[in-house]
Specification:
Blueprint (H helix, E strand, L loop, with lengths): L1 H20 L4 E2 H7 L5 H9 L3 E3 L2 E3 L5 E2 L6 E3 L2 E2 L7 E6 L28 E2 L8 E7 L2 H8 L7 E8 L4 H9 L2 E2 L2 E2 L4 E7 L3 E8 L6 H8 L4 E9 L2 E2 L8 E3 L2 H10 L43
Parallel strand pairs: 9-15
Antiparallel strand pairs: 1-4, 2-3, 2-5, 5-6, 7-9, 7-17, 8-9, 10-14, 10-15, 11-12, 13-14, 15-16
Length: 302
């Protein structure tokens, strides 16, 4: 009898574990980020602003746990549904804004992803006058890591400036320039082309202040004529036309996760020491897509 009672209690315990495992709760900002509403920090702001309701009631306080299977969560009146995580690389043209909410109705980066149904958002920013590589995703956790200064994901830019920076000016760029909010982090600088009236530089940064390169060079007396982000780590805009985009391969997504851990090089190689299959062009079953005709523009030569 004792053994039978013990077995019955064990079965009851297992049933209880199964019941509670079906009712998994998560932080609300994590749920919103996974549904493509931005980084977790941005989703926290949505809650604080009173734009989120849970089971018909406005919520403003954090932390807050919700059950995605049972609770009815809405943002601005629209139901929140979890989506599969997607990752795209866009070659952004000039005049396109890195925001999902523009009251002025200007062209946004997400408008160029024709046919993408998931609610994606830009990872970081490129100002409207700049062009080049921009990652768009609905993975809020990865986006937050890639843009956080602590992780320092390297971003490389091709920059045309007025005049020829002196060796002293280049050294200041390498060691850091004092701006209004403090000294910039060290940068990698190389000269690609030089003339008497202009120079083309390649600059790699591991932080993302607002218009940082333009402000650094202006501080040293050089106006930026053209600025293009050409790489993030080893991902590049190679074979993606201006205004076009493509979906990242699983290997490239894995590489982005490695970037947030400071493993810039090793993630692109297999265990045998050879480079793994990371395509710079269209991945399998996906082709680089061009933007609508009116937003297509030929790349400008520096």
């Amino acid at each position: 009898m004792a053994s039978a009672g013990k077995a019955r209690l064990t079965r009851i315990g297992l049933l209880a574990v199964q019941f509670y495992s079906m009712s998994t709760t998560v932080r609300i900002q994590r749920l919103l980020a996974s549904a493509g509403y931005g980084s977790r920090r941005a989703c926290e702001e949505l809650v604080i602003q009173g734009r989120v309701t849970v089971n018909g009631k406005i919520v403003r306080e954090l932390p807050l746990l919700v059950d995605p299977q049972r609770d009815r969560v809405k943002v601005d009146g629209s139901s929140v549904h979890g989506e599969p995580l997607v990752y795209y690389l866009l070659n952004k043209p000039r005049g396109v804004y890195c925001t999902n909410n523009d009251p002025a109705g200007r062209k946004r980066a997400v408008d160029l992803l024709v046919g993408v149904k998931e609610r994606v958002f830009p990872v970081g920013r490129l100002d409207a006058d700049s062009t080049g590589l921009l990652i768009l995703t609905n993975d809020g956790a990865l986006a937050q890591k890639l843009t956080h200064p602590r992780h320092g994901a390297p971003k490389t830019y091709r920059v045309e400036v007025a005049g020829m920076p002196t060796d002293g000016a280049l050294q200041k760029l390498r060691t850091g320039v004092w701006l209004s909010e403090g000294k910039t982090a060290p940068a990698q600088i190389s000269i690609i082309h030089r003339q008497r009236t202009k120079a083309v530089l390649e600059i790699t940064l591991r932080e993302g202040r607002n218009r940082e390169i333009r402000r650094m060079l202006a501080k040293l007396g050089h106006n930026v004529r053209r600025l293009t982000r050409i790489r993030m780590g080893k991902l590049s805009i190679s074979r993606v036309p201006l205004g076009g985009y493509r979906r990242l391969t699983p290997a490239e997504v894995k590489y982005l996760h490695h970037l947030t851990q400071g493993a810039e090089d090793s993630a692109l190689f297999s265990s045998r020491g050879r480079r793994s299959s990371v395509r710079q062009g269209p991945p399998p079953r996906s082709r680089a897509r061009r933007a609508p005709e009116k937003s297509r523009r030929a790349p400008e030569k520096s």
